[in-house]
């Protein structure tokens, strides 16, 4: 018994002694927009920072103006370089009315150093340290990014566009390999808050595909929170032919399929 305990203690000591990734420090970031109060970007009422730049080119994107990774004016949209200190001023004003801050995009992990610096500053601020820090992401980044953010981020919401890689490429222009790896890695860290399944009628809403997706997610975590979201055409980029919204009945059927596979925590939006 003592030998086993010694082995455990030795392994724990080695883990603690292992070098941690050095976080990138970035005092300013390219910000597309902010929202002082949002109830759809994580738990509770949240301040949301939308960063400029995305490595996906989604056909169903609702914020296509945030895709370019530079401070260029696109369709009248002008991103601006903003310091962490400037953001903290706005967050402090909203602090009495919010439960946390969510960094979204674009794709938040494209500016991981800025995300780290912002979240670290929130945690260190006596007036803000109670706020939770969340990231909304497509998950297409190296796992080293999540290692850098692990100790300053409380939860991560990952958008899984499709489990089928070919369909995922059609929807986003990129493979889903990094996204699936991120889901597994974040679950292992205890930082995965939920996986979001955006369903576009006729693209990724096949019943067999949804069942396979649910089985894959259940293998990662049998109690994983899953949010089934229906594509909405309002505000989305144009597509020829126009993308179709799934009906409420179709979304409920998809959720029932997910629930039938495992004890996944499913909600429909």
List the keywords.
269 residues, alpha/beta, nine-stranded mixed beta sheet, globular
Characterization of this structure:
By secondary structure, the chain is α/β, with parallel strands linked by helices. It has one domain: Aldolase class I (TIM Barrel, Alpha-Beta Barrel). The chain is built from eight helices and nine strands. Strands 3-1-2-4-5-6-7-8-9 form a nine-stranded mixed β-sheet. Strand 1 and strand 2 form a beta hairpin. The chain is globular. It starts with a helix and ends with a strand.
Fold blueprint:
Elements (H helix, E strand, L loop, with lengths): L1 H16 L10 E11 L7 E6 L28 E4 H11 L5 E5 L7 H13 L7 E6 L5 H7 L5 E5 L5 H8 L4 H13 L2 E8 L7 H14 L4 E6 L17 H14 L3 E4 L1
Helix pairs in contact: 7-8
Mean pLDDT: 91
Indicate the CATH class: Alpha Beta
The best one-word shape is globular
Catalogue the unreliable spans.
Answer: none
Brief overview:
With 269 residues, this protein is of the alpha/beta class.
């Amino acid at each position: 018994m003592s030998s086993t305990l010694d082995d455990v203690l030795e392994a724990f000591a080695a883990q603690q002694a292992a070098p941690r990734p050095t976080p990138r420090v970035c005092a300013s970031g390219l910000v597309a927009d902010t929202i002082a109060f949002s109830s759809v970007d994580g738990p509770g009422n949240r301040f949301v920072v939308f960063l400029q730049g995305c490595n996906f080119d989604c056909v169903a994107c609702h914020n296509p103006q945030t895709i370019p990774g530079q401070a260029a004016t696109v369709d009248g949209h002008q991103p601006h370089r903003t310091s962490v200190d400037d953001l903290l001023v706005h967050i402090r004003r909203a602090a009495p009315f919010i439960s946390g801050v969510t960094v979204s995009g674009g794709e938040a992990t494209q500016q991981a150093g800025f995300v780290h610096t912002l979240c670290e500053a929130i945690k260190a601020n006596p007036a803000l340290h109670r706020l939770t820090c969340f990231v909304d992401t497509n998950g297409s980044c190296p796992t080293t990014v999540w290692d850098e953010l692990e100790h300053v981020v409380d939860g991560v919401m990952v958008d899984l566009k499709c489990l089928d890689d070919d369909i995922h490429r059609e929807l986003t222009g990129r493979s889903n390999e990094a996204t699936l790896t991120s889901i597994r890695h974040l679950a292992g860290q205890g930082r995965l808050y939920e996986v979001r399944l955006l369903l576009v009628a006729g693209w990724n809403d096949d019943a067999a595909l949804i069942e396979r997706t649910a089985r894959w997610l259940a293998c990662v975590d049998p109690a994983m929170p899953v949010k089934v979201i229906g594509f909405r055409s309002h505000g989305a980029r144009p597509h020829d032919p126009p993308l179709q919204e799934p009906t409420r009945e179709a979304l409920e059927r998809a959720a029932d399929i997910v629930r039938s596979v495992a004890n996944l925590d499913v909600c429909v939006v």
